[in-house]
Write a structure and sequence with these properties.
By secondary structure, the protein is of the alpha+beta class. Helix content is about 40%, strand content about 15%. It has a six-stranded mixed β-sheet with strand order 3-2-7-4-5-6. A six-stranded mixed β-sheet has the order 9-8-13-10-11-12. A two-stranded parallel ribbon has the order 1-14. A hairpin with a 4-residue loop joins strand 11 (about 175) and strand 12 (about 180-185). Helix 12 runs parallel beside helix 14 (about 340-355). The chain is globular.
Length: about 575
């Protein structure tokens, strides 16, 4: 039965959990902080202010689950949450988001956020309801896969859980939502495992009230109209039809497919795992996050989640594997064991090049299991590509920025992407600015992918915009159709507080600079804002009338300096003002 208790956007409540002391309590969140940081990524980053210097495996490091003000409403793609802490893989401040019923149920428990600190003496699950929270001992679930854990706990609500990889401290362990969505990157599952926290369960049913329902309905209709008009979302070759593997053929056409650890940029067999191939071979059905109209995820008729673009490309081309069956199996194993597919595949690829032979399709499943359990070769592979390459005496073979393995867009084929990988606060990530949108997908306007001209300003604006989106928390795919204008209307209608696209970008800028300040305080700077040497020294795979030269080192450095000036940073990418945080809400 649905409760009659309603909130308008925010609940203004955080659940604080101390696992060491075995206690939990609810605190009020000052409304001015919610106005300044919204929720999701922004609120989590703000909660890290007194803790960002802590080691990721320190018992007192917070692990923060945070939803947004639109969660719990019919706002499209808003049933999401963000997890924030410091990454054990990169050392950077880190956030990662996922959709699913869990976010909805957490908001329904009357919470904007959960902040977990401490370390339990035995494995536990945190069970949250509108009436409170319970720390339940679950030693019988330690060592179990994610599906086993979800099955054991799903009677109590929606589940977010780690697998054996998180328990063993694999540096790229993820957190899985019960429906198959992943808080995938940065090793946040290892932070959860270090706390002896096997799972978080949420079962709330409170409604999120809307201040102006009529205004909300108009804004929602505007968003849906723009979704339907977008060929990227609902076109015959769009992500609603084929999921993100719709990008496989496009990236092949652009000759920017990371192949054999980025040594080449074309993989002749990529058609084996394209969107149409997955639909044909697996009778793929539409699936997706709770309440999402796009349904970009795909699954088998039996409900097994099928891999997305980054996963098919990295377990495919990056390791020289042409078998779709092998790629699907690798994806399923990573989901069961709790491994980030991007970092897992990229680590195997760097390890393969270092030893002179990439793993075969038959070898990969065993290597993934060994990695999750940290046995045999897996003890080394569990450290991620940067540490693997260093220990093998070939540090140049880790295709990463700030220790985060690069996703499936070769930067020699898109110079905005090259810059965005390096300016990203969490490491080599495509989602901070996503210049693929304009360089490849031509949305909202096309830019020259082989030019750095104007890219510094474009990247800075996109980072600010995406920080606001990640704090709402909405899906970035929404913005292949809609804009911040429509989502500002949804937010204003929900909360009764007026927002504009510009005010949301200003909030995003505050979040980006706060993250950057945390990282700089922890020793990051210009030396970390660089691509691996391979991209400056080696060309990609030219052909078919397309030249893929190395990235121009001089132009890259010039555009990076422009980015620093736009951000108000020093020439070393750091802050002149040591009291920057004191001037922030």
């Amino acid at each position: 039965m649905v409760s009659s208790v309603k909130t308008l956007g925010w609940t203004e409540t955080v659940l604080r959990v101390d696992l060491s002391a075995r206690k939990s309590w609810r605190d009020a969140i000052p409304r001015d902080l919610l106005h300044a940081y919204l929720g999701g990524r922004g609120l989590g980053v703000r909660f890290m202010r007194d803790h960002f210097r802590l080691n990721p495996f320190d018992a007192e490091i917070p692990l923060i689950f945070s939803v947004g003000p639109l969660c719990g409403t019919p706002a499209p793609t808003a049933a999401r949450l963000t997890v924030v802490t410091r990454s054990p893989l990169t050392g950077t401040i880190y956030d990662c988001s996922a959709g699913g019923r869990f976010a909805w149920r957490l908001k329904g428990a009357g919470l904007d956020a959960v902040v977990v600190t401490g370390r339990s003496a035995v494995p536990v699950a945190l069970v949250i309801s509108p009436d409170g929270a319970e720390i339940v001992e679950v030693p019988q679930l330690w060592g179990r896969t994610v599906p086993d854990t979800v099955s054991a706990l799903s009677g109590r609500g929606s589940v977010a859980a780690i697998g054996p990889a998180g328990e063993k401290g694999v540096l790229f362990a993820n957190i899985m939502m019960g429906e198959g969505n992943s808080v995938g990157r940065g090793g946040l599952g290892a932070v959860m495992g270090a706390k002896n926290l096997k799972a978080v369960v949420a079962s709330g049913d409170r409604q999120t009230g809307i201040a102006d329902p009529q205004r909300f309905d108009v804004a929602r209709q505007d968003v849906m109209r723009l979704f339907r008009a977008s060929p990227i979302i609902f076109g015959e070759l769009g992500i609603s039809e084929y999921g993100t593997p719709a990008l496989v053929d496009l990236m092949r056409q652009r000759r920017m497919v990371p192949t054999e650890n980025f040594r080449r940029t074309v993989f002749e067999a990529s058609g084996n795992y394209s969107g149409p191939a997955i639909r044909r071979d697996y009778n793929a059905r539409k699936d997706g996050c709770y309440g999402c109209p796009i349904q970009c995820k795909k699954s088998t008729p039996e409900g097994e989640p099928l891999p997305e673009y980054e996963t098919v490309s990295h377990f495919g081309a990056l390791n020289g594997i042409a078998s779709l069956a092998s790629i699907v199996r690798s994806n399923t194993l990573c989901n069961e064991l709790g491994l980030d597919t991007i970092s897992a595949a990229a680590t195997l690829s760097a390890w393969g090049e270092a030893r002179g032979r990439f793993p075969t399709a038959d070898e990969v499943p065993g290597l993934l299991r060994d990695t999750a359990m940290r046995v045999g070769e897996g003890e080394l592979l569990a450290l991620g590509s940067c540490r693997v390459a260093e220990r093998l005496g070939r540090p140049e073979l880790s295709m990463s920025v700030k220790g985060l393995e690069l996703p499936a867009y070769d930067p020699r084929g898109a110079y905005g992407m090259a810059l965005a990988y390096c300016t990203s606060n969490r490491g080599g990530c495509h989602l901070r600015a996503y210049p693929i949108s304009h360089e490849i997908l031509r949305k909202p306007v096309p830019t020259d992918r082989f030019s750095f001209s104007g890219k510094a300003r474009i990247i800075a604006i996109a980072e600010d915009t995406n920080a606001a989106v990640d704090s709402l928390v909405a899906c970035k795919f929404s913005f292949f159709g809609a804009t911040l204008e429509e989502y500002a209307e949804l937010l204003a209608a929900t909360t009764g507080v007026d927002y504009s696209p510009q005010s949301l970008k200003e909030i995003g800028r505050r979040i980006c600079l706060t993250e950057r300040f945390y990282n700089c305080t922890n020793g990051f700077g210009m030396k970390d804002d660089l691509l691996p040497e391979r991209f400056f020294a080696e060309p990609g795979s030219s052909g078919e009338g397309i030249e893929i030269p190395p990235v121009d080192r001089t132009r890259f450095a010039e555009e990076l300096q422009k980015y620093y000036r736009i951000r108000g940073l020093t020439t070393e990418g750091t802050f002149d003002d040591p009291d920057f945080l004191l001037n922030q809400p």
